[in-house]
Amino acid sequence: MTAELTPTFIDQAGFLDLARARRATRSFSNRPVSMAELELLVEAARWAPSPSNRQPWKFLSIADAGLTHQLRDAVAAGCQKLLEKRAGSDARAIEDYLRNFTFFTAAPVLFAVLVRRTHNRLAETDASDIEVEGATMAAGMAMQNLMLAAVANGMVACPMSGPMIARPDLEEILGVSSPWRLMALIPVGWPGPDQPPPPERKRHDLIWTHVPAKE
Ligand SMILES: Cc1cc2nc3c(=O)[nH]c(=O)nc-3n(C[C@H](O)[C@H](O)[C@H](O)COP(=O)(O)O)c2cc1C
Prior knowledge:
Elements: H1 12-21, H2 35-46, E1 57-62, H3 65-85, H4 91-99, E2 109-116, H5 128-152, E3 156-157, H6 167-174, E4 180-189, H7 204-207
Helix pairs in contact: 2-5, 3-6
The structure holds flavin mononucleotide.
């Protein structure tokens, strides 16, 4: 079978619409997510690129509200500990920020994203970071594929690194151990009443420099 090199399933405008429509959503309806829908998201994640095609990721999808509340309590305790340490003038600002670490119980399904950062041919060299960062980048790309697939299906999601404030506790609750590391959570579901407005984005000229070909 010849590989299909020219995708015809989505046009440029459609792709840009999809990329622009994805929002970090913190409000979900009660509608459940089916196994078929979850499979669609994992299928998209599976096609992300990774260094040497190692696919250094695993996804755990959690629909058990008891378990997600247990995770939330661990994150809330982590936030509380941090607030006690920072009892100074900026505690209020931090408190507002920390609210965005615990809303994930609002979603019908919570993905936990695990990354394996230990395959390292450059270990014990000055370039060791390359492989560790590469694995993290790859898992991030898989997360983006998963979230875009959700949006293409009319669903919403939010990438979350904030809950890693309680990483050891979350890993213990989820039974995650070396060589795996919990990297992020992604609540997914159907849009609730409070959808965020499109946020500002930096203009092209602020984020992009082009070096043209020499004449
Ligand atoms: C790696 C990563 C971690 C994030 N962690 C959190 C988080 O812990 N809690 C949260 O509410 N949003 C989190 N966000 C969402 C960002 O706040 C959001 O992407 C940003 O404000 C831009 O909004 P948009 O995604 O709707 O374009 C995270 C986003 C990324 C990429």
